[in-house]
Amino acid sequence: MCSQSTRCARLSPQSPLKWYKARCGIYDPADSLLMNMPNREAAPRQDVAPDRIIRALESAIPGDRIIQSSAIGAPVTVAPRDVNELAEVLRLASGERWRVIPCGAGTWLEMGNRPVEAHLHVSTAHMNRIIEYEPADLTATVEAGCTLADFNSVAFEHRQFIPLDPFGDARMTLGAVAATASAGTLRAGFGTPRDWIIGMRVVHADGRVTKAGGKVVKNVAGYDLCKLYTGSFGTLGVIAELSFKLRARPSEDRTILCEADDASTLGATVKRIPDSDLQPAAVEMFSPRAIGLEHISDANCVLALRFLAEPEAVKSQLVDLASIADAARLHEPHDDEAMEMQRLYRANETAAHWGYSLRISVLPADLGAMLADLERILPRAGAVCAHAANGIIRVFADAAWLDGLKTAQRPRRLAELRAAAQSRGGQMVIIRAPDEIRAHLDVWGEVGDASRWMREIKEKFDPQAILNPGRFVAGI
Ligand SMILES: Cc1cc2nc3c(=O)[nH]c(=O)nc-3n(C[C@H](O)[C@H](O)[C@H](O)COP(=O)(O)OP(=O)(O)OC[C@H]3O[C@@H](n4cnc5c(N)ncnc54)[C@H](O)[C@@H]3O)c2cc1C
Fold first, then answer.
1. 130-248 has which CATH code?
2. Same CATH fold assignment for domains 130-248 and 252-348
3. 108 CA distance to ligand 1 centroid (A)?
4. Are 25 and 421 in contact (CB under 8 A)?
C-alpha cells in the first residue's frame, strides 16, 4: 500500500486532462483506487462471517440489541441502548478491525460514496431519550437517536423549538442531522446545525468517549470540535449525545408568494432583501408547475417568503416586502394551502421517482448566473428549486434525464456543470444519480488542498479507517 504522501502526489493534477478530472471530481480508475484506500496499513478484515460478528457481539452486550439484517451495506446491525454499550461495541469493532457504518434511522445511508467495505451498522435508534431540557435556559441535551420531530413536539409545549427543518423522513435522528449538517428551508432565517449545537459526547473508533462543548450557550474556549464533527458524515466518531440551544417559537407564521414570469424578476427581489428590514425565515424559489403546486399558483416562477415572528414584526415586514417586490404579483395562500404547499414542497425533495438529485451552492449573488449555466449545460431537469437567500440550487430529474446523451457523455456533462459552479467559487454535490454515473463521478467533487487536511484529521481520529471508510469527501 502506498504512503499518504504518494497518494497526494497521485492526486495532484499533472496534465490539462488530469487537472480537469481532478477539478470536476471525475474518477480516473487509478485515482479512484487511491481515493478509496483506507488511510492506514492496518487493513481491516475482509473475511468476517456475520455469525462470527454476532457471537462476538453477544459476548459484549445483551443479545436483543443485535439484528441480522439483509439490507444493503453491512450484514449485521446493532442498536445499543446507551453510550456505554455503544462504546463497548466500538471497542470490539476496533479490536476485531470490523468496518462500521454509524447510523440513526438509516433513511439516508445512500448519501455519499458507498463505503468501501462494511461489517456492521451501529444504530443509535434505541438511544432516544431527552436527557435534560431546561426551558428557562433555552437549552437541551438529548441522546443521538432522539428524533427532531419528537424533541420539537416536547419543546412545542414550552413554545420553543430547534429551528431546523431538514428534508427527509420524520424518523430522522438528531445525531444524523448533526452528522450530515442537514438543514432545510429555515436555513435562510435560522442557519444550520452548526449554529445550534453547543455540545456533544462522541464515541471514537476505538471506543473512547470524549466530550466537546457543553450544556450552556457560551462554553467553548479554543477549538470547537462540535463544528468538526458536525457534517463529518460519521467518519470521525459516532455522536452519542448532543446539547442544543433552542429558540422561542414565534406566534405568527405567514407565507407570501411573489409570482413572476421569469426568475430574473424574482432574483432582483432576493438581492434587495439584505439591504431591507426583512428577516424572512425561508426564501424559496421554484416553478409551481414542476413540483405539482399549480393549484396554488400558475405563475412560471414563484418566490415563497415565510415569516416566522411576532405579529407586529410580521406586519411591518409585509409592508416592506410590497415595496421591494414591486415588479412581482404578491399573493398570500390560506393557512391550509400554505401547509399543503410545504408538505408538497418537502415531498418533492425526497420523491422516489427522481433518479437524479443535485445540490449546487454558489454565492447568493451568483444564483441567476448559475441558473443560466444549468439551462445551457443541462436543460430540461424535472424540477429546479432554490434556497434563494443562500445561493443553493436543488435540481431534480427522472432517471431518463440524460438518456439523449451517449453513455460516456453523461458524467462529463455533469462534470461540466460542476466546473461551472466551481468557477464561481461554489460546489456541486450529487445526492442521487444512477450507479453508472456514480461510478465515474465523485459525488462530493474535488476540494483541492483541503483534502490533505481532511485526510490528516481522519488519520488522527480513526487511524484504522474503521468508520464509514470512503463515504465522504476526498475518499475518507
Ligand atoms: C431522500 C432524502 C433526501 C434528503 N435531502 C436532504 C437535503 O437535500 N438536504 C439536507 O440537508 N438533508 C437532506 N436529507 C437528510 C435528512 O435531513 C437527515 O439528515 C437524515 O434523514 C437523517 O436521518 P437518519 O437518522 O435516517 O440518518 P441515517 O440515514 O441513519 O444516517 C445519515 C448519515 O449520518 C451518519 N450518522 C447517522 N447517525 C450518526 C451518529 N450518531 N454519529 C455519526 N454519524 C451518524 C451516517 O453514517 C450516514 O452517513 C435527506 C434525507 C432523505 C431521506
1. 3.30.465.10
2. no
3. 5
4. no
